[in-house]
Design a protein that fits this description.
Blueprint: H1 16-29, E1 35-36, E2 43-44, H2 48-52, H3 55-68, H4 79-85, H5 101-111, H6 116-132, H7 146-158, H8 163-174, H9 179-185, H10 191-194, H11 203-208, E3 210-212, H12 220-240, H13 248-256, E4 270-275, E5 286-288, E6 293-297, H14 303-316
């Protein structure tokens, strides 16, 4: 079990710093020069130097390490890349998000063929290129084979051309508890871990993660806590309506150190606890990312004050162990 300590920050690692570390690590892995494409449609980059330096294998190891220790996965691969990696037939052959504009332009020309004459012209222009993509059957094909050809080009550039890079990455994952084998056997369950298909955090989902630790019914503290929770719910209304710059992902980072629910889930519910307010003292809400606790002030009856305190705490509160 890795123990994480951020230089210059207080606090022992009982889970929170580790989740934060892996969240930042996965962001960093995507900038290592081993991927290309748009943020939510990453493809493996064909880079022989990165391959010889072992960057793909190290990235696989770190990804597996993150998943197994409560961190996120990559959450950026093109869905069809992930499906190819798992030995599955893609649900959709998406050529419009391929990184190379020249490849997209040539596929568009093939797609635009309407007649045999059009197709013969394309074969004359792109036949050798298609053959280099492993589609030598193109010379004996007809207009009815256009879709098959497009699929072949997509598979070539999305997966086959970079198969050595993919093998290194998955091999790195398998060095950590044979995790890639588990992913392949349960590929649909791991889809949100590797691709950007996870639904945005909603109020209902966020609230389902919380457990409110009330004082006994009938006590003065209980009345004050219910008052606070009422303004807390109003604040969540603001988050839901995007009337504040705080998002549910921001709140999740503030409480847990990660912006998404880990693949293996949190070890426990996120607990809402309370602290007493002092006259003349403005004390911000705070959280323990290790014990997964959010602490709110009792007796807070103003929606505006709750929103102001949470905005300041979430956006300006930096570091572990610093309420």
């Amino acid at each position: 079990m890795p123990i994480i300590h951020f230089v210059g920050e207080d606090g022992d690692d009982y889970g929170g710093p580790r989740r934060e570390f892996f969240r930042l690590l996965m962001l960093q892995v995507t900038t290592w020069g081993i991927f290309e494409g748009s943020t939510s449609h990453f493809y493996f980059l064909y880079d022989q130097m990165a391959l010889s330096e072992g960057r793909y294998r190290v990235a696989g190891k770190l990804t597996a390490w993150s998943i197994l220790h409560g961190g996120p996965g990559l959450r950026c691969l093109s869905r069809q890349v992930y499906e190819f990696m798992c030995g599955q037939e893609p649900t959709q052959y998406d050529w419009e998000n391929l990184p190379d504009p020249e490849v997209r332009s040539r596929i568009q020309k093939i797609q635009d063929c309407k007649t045999e004459e059009d197709f013969w012209a394309i074969k004359s222009e792109l036949g050798d290129w298609l053959s280099d993509c492993g589609l030598s059957f193109v010379y004996t094909s007809g207009i009815q084979d256009v879709e098959r050809i497009v699929r072949g080009v997509v598979k070539h550039f999305a997966f086959l051309r970079v198969s050595n890079m993919v093998t290194e990455f998955t091999g790195g994952m398998d060095e950590v508890g044979q995790l890639w084998q588990c992913c392949c056997e349960n590929w649909e369950a791991f889809l949100p871990v590797f691709t950007d298909c996870q639904q945005p955090m909603t109020r209902a989902k966020f609230r389902s993660l919380l457990l409110i630790n009330y004082s006994p019914i009938g006590s003065n503290r209980r009345d004050e806590e219910e008052e606070t929770i009422y303004t807390w719910e109003l604040f969540l209304n603001m988050v839901d309506a995007k009337d504040t710059s705080v998002s549910y992902e921001d709140l999740l980072i503030f409480i847990t150190g990660t912006d998404t629910v880990p693949a293996l889930g949190f070890p426990s519910k996120l607990t809402v606890d309370f602290f007493d307010r002092e006259d003349g003292v403005r004390r911000l809400p705070y959280a323990s990312t290790c014990s997964l606790n959010l602490f709110l002030p009792r007796g807070l009856s103003s929606e505006e004050e709750m929103a102001d305190l949470m905005l300041t705490a979430v956006k300006c509160g930096i570091g572990f162990g610093k309420p």
